[in-house]
Design brief:
heterodimer; A: 223 residues; three-stranded mixed beta sheet; 10 helices; B: 240 residues; alpha/beta; 2-enoyl-CoA Hydratase, Chain A, domain 1; 2 domains; six-stranded mixed beta sheet; four-stranded mixed beta sheet
Amino acid sequence: MSGDGVVVRRRGPVAVVTLGGPGLVDVCAALADGDARVVVLTGTGGRFAAGPVGGAAAAVAALRMPTIAWIDGDCLDGGLEIALACDVRIAAPGARLGLRAVAEGRLPTDGGTQRLLRLVGRAHALRLLLTGDVIDAAQALRIGLVQSVGGLEAADELAERVAAAAPIAAAYIKEAVLRGADLALDQGLRLEADLSILLHTTADRARGLASFADGTRPGYEGR
Amino acid sequence: MSEQPPTVLFEKRGDIAVVTLNRPDALNAFSVRMRDELWEVLGAVRDDPDVRGMLLQGAGERAFCAGADLTEFGTAPSQAVARTVRWERDVWGLLLGLPKPTVAALHGYCLGSGLEMAVLCDLRVAADDAVFGMPEAGLGLVPAAGGTQLLPRLLGPGRALDLLLSGRRFGAGEALEYGLVTQVVARSELSGAATALLQRVLRAPGRALAAAKRALAEGADVPLASALDLERRLAAGLSA
């Protein structure tokens, strides 16, 4: 099933990326230059990611727009590292998640040790890394590895909601959260305030406020 | 022009300061005037030696605080002025840095700045009718009262991004599940439950509470070895 490569389909502002083989880095480069407002990553053939994916997590993490992983089937090793690089993860009820590298004498090489630690905390990260245990969707939800359990429609609904946001505001919020995690709190608060005020210069902010006042849909343009 | 009622009420009940956001007809929306009055009140909470802790609540039946008063947005003459004003009266820094324990009692709408204000407090109790959400992205805005920094530190980056990017609303049950609030009670019991929680906290000496708050706030931002030093110094200061 790994011969299909990475397929991108557009559904309005949402880009749905199916991970059927190598090529994700190039796809991310194209997405970075494009106008998709949300990226949904998903698998095929009972796996979240098939084939070699080395280095792709960094490309996913670098995308300025929000990214959602919908995890169906096996999401292991490099596949989980890609899911960890997304902003929000939703697991199908039958999903299986794990990082088996250490148990096999290797180390994850695509950010797995670091993004897992920051997402679920030290106790859960060490348990998953040191044992190589593969966990189910319910356990993943309990430890915060995924944010909800649901079918593709749950991922679609979330994507639609996020796509309705003002794109620059969404990108700044993502930046404030992810960059702020590496800053002392007072520095993070400075970053948030600066991004908030920088946003005053966008046409979408004025549009959002006007739409709120007259109860219409804003129809953001990303400028 | 007739005298308008204060937008923030301050009342002392024993050693507790009860601070009430008081624009019930506007769902306690956070306005420029409320910022100025909250700044004064929080200064009093900090400086009054008879006040040992603060309970923050919203007036009326419908909301703790439904967010910023958007009708006032866009009134700043320039980005440079807006930035100066933001730090002239850093009301959020004042709330976050209070050396006394703070409990937020949350009912009805608790959205945007309202949720951020709650998250700047130490502990949160919710009524079963509470509705939470961070709608900023959908309005073309970025949260500006610490939401992008405090929510990830409280709930983890995954849940924080979920809530901040989707803007979806959620209820008290989910808030409890996420660890956003420590307790959910019936609407009629909210005030009593929040007060009881604060009174339980206040059984500890104020100096110990202040030291614990400082250890967590400052310790979170430095390497572990430095934080352990800080803990030792704060502990020695208490037993001196």
